[in-house]
User: What shape does this take?
Amino acid sequence: MINSSVWYRHWLEIRFTLPTLMVAALLIGLWPGITVTGMGPAGGPAGETTFATTFEHTGPVFQAMQKTRLAQSIGEQDLFAWAVFAERISTLGCFTAALLLAGNGIMFVWSPRDASVSYTLTLPVSRVHLIWTRFVAGWLAALLAAGLALLIECAMLLVQGRGVPFVPLALSVVFSVPILMAWNAILGVPIMAIRGTWLLLIFFPLFVMSVPWAWHTVTAFPASGEVPWGALAALLGITAFGLVATILAARVKEF
Assistant: This one.
């Protein structure tokens, strides 16, 4: 009964962020499909915007993937659809999900609209239990959004009659999970002192600096078959540090 109450409490909090999270997933899934709509093959009829010229100065991940093993095995348009999806899921997608869902069960980023979540500290459970279950709840909600983005992307490409590079798309989602876990965990401590918009403003520079690392993490294996062991180990370490720090800080903080 107690465990059910804890998970229900997490649901009361998370449900207010789900609409925004689903919109983010929708945009992530639609963007690559919309981008390649109407693109003709390089060397197409006169007056037609060609795929090669359109993306000559855009798509940083796409440009970086040109000489990879994946580029040799799938078409250029499939490569671009995957590259843009990987770029979005590793940066905007993960950061948005982590910011919306970050919380430790005691404090949370955005003020709740439902006062029923305020009974958190009246539950007969330890703060450690409250924190790790809240982390898992946020992680599962973010995975749901990532899966939705993947399904939307595949559906968009199918509707357009284009190929669906499902394996690299799915692998990028899998390798985005450690990034999401790390962001979610590391935001656990700051939200005890910083709320909402200020948290976004303070962490935005760190997010920008982490972008190349995130791109490498989600593209290395799908594109070249190389597992980014160093990045994965660092992300797991950050996750562990964030959770431990949150638990230690929550034990001594008065609410």
User: Anything to note?
Assistant: The chain has a mean pLDDT of 82. The chain has one domain: 2-30+83-252. DSSP finds ten helices and no strands in the chain.
